[in-house]
Design a protein that fits this description.
This protein is α+β, with helices and mostly antiparallel strands. It has one domain: Phosphatase 2c, domain 1. 29% of the residues lie in helices and 24% in strands. The strands form two sheets. A five-stranded antiparallel β-sheet has the order 1-2-3-4-7, with helices on one face. Strands 6-5-8-9-10 form a five-stranded antiparallel β-sheet. Strand 1 and strand 2 form a beta hairpin. It comes from Kangiella marina. InterPro entries: PP2C (IPR015655), PPM-type-like_dom_sf (IPR036457), PPM-type_phosphatase-like_dom (IPR001932). This is Serine/threonine phosphatase PppA.
Length: 249
């Protein structure tokens, strides 16, 4: 966990044999956020691949929708209408030269390619809604007092709305999944500088260390995944010997 919070509300999954990685962040300030993120990863951890990749992705979406209802039922039974139990989630699925990212909330996915790091998810936040409406300049978003107010999460609404992004995998791509505890402490430019080594073990260690030095007011979870492609095969692999790591502090 970070240097301030006593309870770690972050959770994660690494299942490279399925091409599945997940980061979930229990909603800070709400009751039982750690339980919420645990329920999300526990539900996804037992999934297996059957049928097509699209069927597997749909299974993930269905599982998140079921977990959404369970969290709402738990919140009502424990706290009535006074509180909410919720968790953000960001999911990376890699299969057959393609990737899919699913997310709800402000846990992020980044993609490092050709020397550049891009945030490929867009935070579901009140501030981003203001930016989209033209009421707030983009360069003022990060420092806005409502920057931490999210508009989507597992357990937050009756109907779960998951965003999806699909793309092609390239050898050497590095994905970073992280809870907002990381980008609260480090700017995107500061995060990018650690990717010049292209060694995901070193990347994660440096990211976590740097965030902790800043004070780490929130829990920090980061998963870095490097893609290795075999040009002689039609399918993609992330071999067991390739470097992948996750850190929770």
């Amino acid at each position: 966990m970070g240097t301030v919070r006593e309870v770690n509300e972050d959770n994660y999954i690494e299942r490279p044999e399925l091409g599945l990685w997940v980061v979930a962040d229990g909603m800070g300030g709400h009751s039982a956020g750690d339980i919420a993120s645990t329920m999300v990863v526990d539900a996804l951890s037992v999934l297996e691949r059957t049928g097509s990749n699209e069927a597997f992705i749909q299974k993930i979406v269905d599982t998140l929708s079921i977990t959404n209802q369970k969290l709402r039922q738990m919140a009502f039974s424990r706290f009535g209408k006074k509180s909410m139990v919720g968790s953000t989630v960001v999911v990376l699925v890699c299969f057959d030269n393609k990737y899919t990212i699913l997310w709800a909330g402000d846990s992020r996915a980044y993609l490092y390619n050709s020397g550049k790091l891009d945030q490929v998810t867009r935070d579901h936040s009140h501030v981003n809604e203001l930016v989209d409406s033209g009421a707030l300049p983009q360069d003022e978003a990060e420092a806005h007092p409502l920057a931490n107010v999210i508009t989507r999460a597992i357990g937050a609404a009756q109907d779960l709305n998951i965003d999806r992004l699909d793309g092609d995998l390239n050898s050497g791509d590095i994905f970073l999944l992280c809870s907002d505890g990381l980008n609260k402490e480090l700017t995107d430019g500061e995060i990018q500088q650690f990717f010049t080594t292209e060694n995901v073990v070193d990347i994660n260690k440096a990211l976590i260390h740097s965030a902790l030095i800043r004070g780490a007011k929130d829990n920090i979870t980061a998963i870095s995944v490097k893609v290795d492609m075999d040009d002689e095969k039609d399918d993609y692999t992330i071999p067991a010997q390739s470097l992948k790591t996750s850190d929770m502090v």
